[in-house]
Specification:
The protein contains three helices and 18 strands. With 294 residues, it is mainly beta. The longest helix has 15 residues.
């Protein structure tokens, strides 16, 4: 069996720390590849790609607040690029409400928020809670510095961010700021908190007629938590035929679920691949079936 191993590391990354999603392997000399196939034998890298970014346009939403004159104001929530779950999104939302003075403090010194997003685990949905703002606060409370009016504040869910939380684009809850008590809404579809749960590794030397794009060599789904190392060893090598030709290099890239380049924040990675001469393998198999001895 004729097998050659090639290894890609951060030294093979094109424009290091500028996305870290393109790698090139340069052969020592030009090689003629005919009847050859390539397969991934192992991948080691860190789970370091963001799920919410300005690039994805899924990092913003709005909320409303009614001041003591009855005027409705709308505040933008712009989430910094990063890796978030619903809890950390809600925590950042709370920090924005604090910055805007749209919160209260009770007699125990606890901050009181009138909007929140939480996970409803039993329903596998995201729940928005809107709590009625009173027209007066008890003695000892710190009232919202932005003013307050008997009302229910709203959350406005724009396109793209709506996929994260599972609501329709431009969904507004509640539909009016009129006082309605403490009310809740559940997302209408399963939330896609991580829009890139799978990454695709492409190779310039293959043309797989069964995938789009046809250069997809392998896919991985993280088997680690965010920030931890992902280790993948296929139980069986899956070979893709290399196009016949003379090669000086092979180019590889990481794509997200939408087949667009994904930004890998940590460049530390090791990708081990095997190139096999399939014609020699076929000859060895034929000899074995015929009982020929080399």
């Amino acid at each position: 069996m004729s097998v050659s191993t090639i290894i890609l590391t951060q030294d093979n990354i094109v424009n290091l720390n500028n996305g870290n999603n393109q790698l090139v392997f340069k052969f020592p000399n030009s090689v003629r590849l005919s009847n050859h196939a390539i397969a991934v034998s192992s991948i080691s890298m860190f789970y370091s790609w963001f799920n919410i970014t300005a690039l994805f346009q899924n990092n913003t939403f709005q909320y409303s607040w009614v001041d003591n004159t009855g005027t409705i104001s709308y505040y933008d929530v712009v989430i910094p690029d990063g890796v978030y779950d619903i809890s950390t999104i809600n925590s950042y939302f709370q920090s924005v409400m604090v910055a805007n003075g749209t919160y209260a403090i009770n007699t125990s010194g606890e901050y009181v928020y009138y909007l929140e997003m939480v996970v409803n685990a039993s329903q596998y949905k995201i729940q928005i809670n809107s709590y009625q703002v009173p027209n007066s606060f008890p003695s000892g409370w710190t009232a919202p510095t932005a003013g307050y009016f008997l009302s229910n504040p709203q959350i406005i869910i724009p396109p793209n961010f709506n996929n994260i939380v599972g609501f329709a684009p431009n969904y507004t809850f509640p539909s009016t700021t009129a006082p309605q008590g403490n009310i809740s809404a559940l997302s209408s579809v399963a939330p896609q908190v991580n829009p890139n749960p799978t990454l695709f590794l492409t190779c310039s030397g293959i043309q797989n007629p069964y995938t789009i794009p046809s250069s997809i060599l392998y896919s991985i789904s993280p088997n680690a938590n965010v920030g931890e190392q992902i280790n993948v060893v296929p139980p069986q090598l899956v070979f893709n035929k290399l196009l016949e030709g003379t090669y000086e290099r092979l180019a590889f890239s990481w794509l997200g679920t939408n087949n667009q380049p994904i930004i890998i924040n940590d460049p530390v990675m090791t990708i081990t691949l095997e190139i096999r001469n399939t014609k020699q393998d076929l000859g060895m198999i034929t000899d074995a079936l015929l009982g020929n001895k080399g």
